[in-house]
Amino acid sequence: MTSESTIFADATQAKGETIIECIDVDKFFGDFQALKDINLKVGRQEVIVVIGPSGSGKSTLIRCINRLEKHDRGTIIVDGIELSDDVRNIQEIRRETGMVFQQFNLFPHLTVIDNVTLAPRQVRRLPKKQADELAMEMLERVKIPEQAHKFPGQLSGGQQQRVAIARSLAMRPKVMLFDEPTSALDPEMIKEVLDVMVELATGGMTMIVVTHEMGFARAVADRVLFMADGEVVEVGTPLHFFENPQEDRTKLFLSQIL
Amino acid sequence: MTATAERAPAPPKLSPLGWLRKRLFQNVGSAVLSVTLIVILLYVVYRSLVFVVINGQWEAISRNLTLFMVGTFPRDQVWRLAAQALMLGLAFGIGVGTASGTARDKAKQAGLAYEPPLLAGTLKRFWSLIAFVLVLLTLAGTAGPWLVVGGAVLVGYIGWHSWRLPPSMRTLGWLLTALLFLAGFQVVSGTEGLAWLPVALVLAAASRLLVPVERLETPLRQLVSLGAPLVAAGVVYGIYQVIAAPGVGWDDWSGMILTLWWSAIVIVLAFPTGLMLALARRSTLPALRYLATTYIELIRGVPLITLLFMGQFMLGFMLPAGTVFSSITRSIAAGTLFTAAYVAEIVRGGLQSLPPGQMEAGQALGMGIPAIMRRIVLPQALRAVIPAMVGQFISLFKDSSLLFIIGATEFLGVRDLVHAQADFRVSAHAETLVFVAVGYWAIAFSMSRESQRLERRLGVGET
């Protein structure tokens, strides 16, 4: 293949300045090893798509980056801060790291705008007026300002997921983690969410996206990570995965999803 | 998923005769069943009417109404209770008005039409209570009770109009509600001793909301946010030193007054205690967890009546020598310890019903555990357990009748006083029982209805 794909064939090489670094990360659930010796560097403004069969550790990997799961060995550094047991460290990192979940996890007892303003008001101590303005700006970005005063239960799945993205963006994170953001959506709603994500990516947001949407990967991903059995099996440009996957496990997986 | 669910077409309306034929006499079996049930029903209604209208000796009630309501409360101090009724009426009116106002603000913000609650709706909401009060007033036959109840309703109605106030006044509305409520309590209990404490707590909490801390510079902000509550508490303490006046302490309360206040105080104390216990039981600190679990399991294995006895005879051993608490105070402590354990288990159920994603979403946003609990977890968990919680409170309200074992004369206990009178020593036992039962029912039923309503209202937006 071209020389470009060989440059990116290494998970430990990032384009430009590094913002996330995982060194020899292991994670166990009881006796089961969910992550094996993960090494990964993510550069600023880089978009990484993580693919792999279920149970391969994709979600666990990004959940370790914002400490929703605690890694057992190795080092994770986010924006110069190493993840430790220090609660203040963890909260610092979580403020810089937005996360979007497969099940949206919106707060059903709050209106859309209150969902978005909650963290800025509680964590950043923004006064209500400023927080509301910020929230409306974010809701414009995901194109649903008109739903601001509805409750999540009154919205479609696609709209809910866009609110979830706006909620994360309102903390002005440096990195966005997406944990299968379109897997719980009806097919006709996937596009509206992906469109928002593409816009974010082209706007220069650093993103790690666990997804099987290869169209999204082809459009905006800088690198694709293929994981299986808790390991990073293959790394490359989207083009590399479409045209010239190397490993047998990669080929098998791609033949199943494409 | 959306709110625009299609409505099923209404079934065609039947004529009364058609309705009878279709619902009651569709075939021989249902006709026999209908006739049998109607006969039984008519007989029960007939016997009840005969009892209520003809045979019942209701003088046992009408002559002892004051006794049932206030028991052995000193008669020359009854004006305090009238003042209390007025203050509570106003507090209730302003509280409801402020709540309606908040609902209106929200609806306005969301661009929805808001209809203020109608009088008819309010009457329907509390019909069991209203009916009971009307029966009382009719039996009383003197002007005093009418004036007090009428006055309380009138000031309540005036207070209710606070919903028209602008949104910026809501905090003030709640503050006024709380203060009037405490004032209503203290106009009876007096302003000596620790009376300043609850008022100071309310004002200290309010000072955080009313002082615009956010607009101040950082060093000043911390000073004010710490200082304002202290100053408020201090001022209250000072005022109470000046206005200290004796009242009628709760040891001298009895009848319906005691039943209501005892239950209300225990509920108010047991709720936060139970909440803390539930959180402690789910804590990651093993010591806290085991302590809470042990406490809850111990208390839940003991009948309330045993705890009340223990409160009387054993609480003294566990406290430093010389501390003397009255028997009502000790029964409040026992009731609180008992109810808190049940509240804790109910709340724990609510906490467990919440999907872990809610907590994770809060964590992922960088929120601390206290903020996650206050803003995300508890509002949802508590809403989910409103029915169970109110059920617990209703049973506590009825269990207040156990107070007779510690010598207090609560609502049911008043019966003993009535039947100690020469006129009613052997007669009218059934009448007084029915009256007391209806009294308990009227209040418990209202509580249950209000809980359903609260549940519906807090369920806004959830489909």
Describe this structure in words.
The complex is a heterodimer of chains A (about 260) and B (about 475). Helix content of chain A is about 40%, strand content about 25%. By secondary structure, chain A is of the alpha/beta class. In chain A, β1 and β2 form a beta hairpin. Chain A starts with a helix and ends with a helix. The relative contact order of chain A is 0.18. With about 475 residues, chain B is an all-alpha fold. Among the domains of chain B are: about 30-60; about 250-463, Orthogonal Bundle (MetI-like fold), CATH 1.10.3720. In chain B, about 75% of the residues lie in helices and about 0% in strands. Chain B has 21 helices and no strands. In chain B, α7 runs antiparallel to α21, α12 (about 255-280) crosses α16 (about 325-355) and α13 crosses α16. Mean pLDDT of chain B is about 85; it is low at about 1-5. At the A-B interface, α3, β6, α4 and α6 of A face α17 and α18 of B.
Number of helices of chain B: 21
Q: Which architecture of the domain at 249-463 in chain B would the CATH scheme give at its second level? A: Orthogonal Bundle
Name the quaternary structure: heterodimer
Mean pLDDT of chain B, as a whole number?
Answer: 87
CATH class (first level) name of the domain at 249-463 in chain B: Mainly Alpha
CATH topology assignment of the domain at 249-463 in chain B: MetI-like fold
Q: What amount of the residues of chain B lies in strands?
A: under 5%
Low-confidence stretches of chain A at least 5 residues in length (pLDDT < 50)?
A: 1-7
Which structural class fits the helix and strand makeup of chain B? mainly alpha
Major sheet description of chain B: none
* Strand order across the largest sheet of chain A: 6-7-8-3-9-10
Radius of gyration of chain A equals: 18 Å
- Most extensive chain contact? A-B, 35 and 30 residues
Uncertain runs of chain B are 1-5
Which value, in Å, is the CA radius of gyration of chain B?
A: 26 Å
Gross geometry of chain A: globular
Give the N-terminus to C-terminus distance of chain B in angstroms: 7 Å
Main sheet specs of chain A: 6 strands, mixed
Distance between the termini of chain A: 21 Å
